[in-house]
Every structure is written in C-alpha cells, then in structure tokens.
Amino acid sequence: MIKTKGINHVALVCRDMKETAAFYADVLKMPLFKTVQLPDGGQHFFFDCGGGNAIAFFWWEDAPPAAPGIASVREFPFDAKTAVGSMNHLAFDMAEEELEAALDRLEDAGVPHTHAVFNHDDSPAGYAREKHEGVFVRSVYFTDPNGIMLEFAATTKRFGPEDIAHEPATAKATA
User: Fold this and answer.
1) DSSP strand pairing (43-50 vs 32-37)
2) Mean of the per-residue pLDDT values for the chain?
3) Residues 24-58 pLDDT 10s
4) What is the CA 27 to chain-centroid distance, rounded?
C-alpha cells in the first residue's frame, strides 16, 4: 500500500503573480514561504495555507488564457460544472466559528463571495438555509483574482458507514 501523509501542495496557474501574491498573503493571510524563478522565465510561489499544507502558483507571461466553464467554474452556484481533469474548486479547512468572520473579511476586501454560509446536507437540494442535525459541512465560497473558486469549509460531523449511500455512476455506453 502507498502511504501518504496528506496533500503537500496544490499547484495552480495565475495570470499575475504580484496580484496573486497580494491576495493570498494579504487578504487570506497565507504566508509566502518559497519563491522560484523558473529557467523559462516563469515563476513558482508557495503559500502556507495551514496544517502543514501549501498552495502554490505558477506564472508564465505566455500562459494560455483562463477557460471558465472548462478549466474553472464559470459562476457558482448557477454554472459550476467543469471539464474532466479540471479542478472545480479548492476547499480550505476552517473552524466553524471562523466562517462568519471570513464572510466579513471577504466583504471588506471586495472579494466576490457567496455572502452567506452554505449548510450542506443530504436533502434533494443539497443544502439548507438553516443549520440542522443533518448538516455535514458548512461553507463559504469565493473566487481569487484568477477566477479560481475557493471554499472555506467546516466539517460539522463525524462520518460513518451510513454516509456511503450511493453506488458510483458511470458513463452510459454509446452505440
């Protein structure tokens, strides 16, 4: 068996390293701890996002443009599908009692966000307006300057065998 200890870092691509570094270090308070100048003229910067984990960004002057609706979410929650192999969003673990303060911080910084804490549950809608016993995670969604959808997520229950209630879906065979 392969034994991992968790995620070391997730590496994404940004449109402007200076803007991205300011957002992650100043707005989200994730310290920049390593910078790399790449031989092809690009850059690779690493930010501490807590718990021994990191988020990293590549920047190249000639990188292809963003592709909302393919490589990233076009508009959450109304148009959240992305292509196979893309990253839909990145969720940062957060204490539940910090979620409301995170909303205020995002608002004060002018960051596009959901303006409410989502209470994810197993209802047909997938979420509830109010927190209740069936809520398993509470979330705040927002986007960074690159259009990358991010989430502050607080797990509110311990998961057990009863939480695995669906068979994996598969693509339909085509003739």
Assistant:
1) antiparallel
2) 93
3) 999 999 999 999 999 999 999 999 999 999 999 99
4) 15
Give the CA distances from residue 2 to residues 5, 7, 53, in Å, rounded to whole numbers and listed in that order. Answer: 10, 14, 19
* Terminal alpha carbon distance of the chain: 38
Tell me the C-alpha distance between 126 and 108, whole Å.
29
Q: Rounded to two decimals, what is the model's pTM?
A: 0.90
Strand partners, 89: none
DSSP string, 21-53: HHIIIIIS---EEEEEE-TTS-EEEEEEEETTE
Per-residue pLDDT, 5:
87
Written as six digits, the tokens of 144 are: 């960074």
CA distance 47 to 31: 5
